């Protein structure tokens, strides 16, 4: 995986869509990229909600899930399966 291409693609999208992207998107996307990197670039991996929220400073689950779903809508994340808590 080319981390520089991931970053470039994200920032290109951000500059083209300034009305859609906010700091939460940046923080969560970069955390997901870092998490994936630490896991050795697995194609499928879990994303623990509470760890992600703590890492990026989001307190509200609603804000977190809205941000995650928007990253999916933007095409940066592929959601394979939702948690079944």
The main pleated sheet reads as:
none
Strand content: under 5%
- Which class of secondary structure composition applies to the elements? mainly alpha
Mean pLDDT, nearest integer? 94
- Counted by DSSP, the helix tally is 4
Q: Kindly state the number of beta strands.
A: 0
Could you name the ranges where pLDDT drops below 50 across 5 or more consecutive residues? Answer: none
Which series of helices and strands comes N to C? HHHH
Categorize the overall geometry. Answer: globular
Rg, Cα atoms, Å = 13 Å
How far is the first residue's CA from the last residue's CA? 31 Å
- Proportion in helices: 55-70%
Description:
61% of the residues lie in helices and 0% in strands. With 85 residues, the chain is mainly α.
Q: What's a quick, concise take on this entry?
A:
The protein is mainly α. It has helices spanning 3-16, 23-38, 49-56, 61-74.
List the main descriptive attributes of the protein structure presented here.
4 helices
Detail the topology: elements first, then pairings.
Elements: H1 3-16, H2 23-38, H3 49-56, H4 61-74
């Amino acid at each position: 995986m080319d981390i520089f291409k991931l970053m470039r693609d994200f920032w290109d999208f951000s500059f083209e869509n300034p009305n859609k992207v906010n700091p939460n998107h940046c923080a969560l996307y970069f955390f997901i990229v870092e998490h994936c990197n630490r896991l050795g670039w697995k194609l499928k991996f879990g994303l623990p909600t509470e760890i992600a929220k703590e890492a990026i400073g989001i307190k509200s689950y609603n804000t977190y899930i809205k941000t995650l779903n928007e990253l999916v809508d933007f095409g940066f994340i592929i959601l394979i399966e939702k948690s079944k808590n």
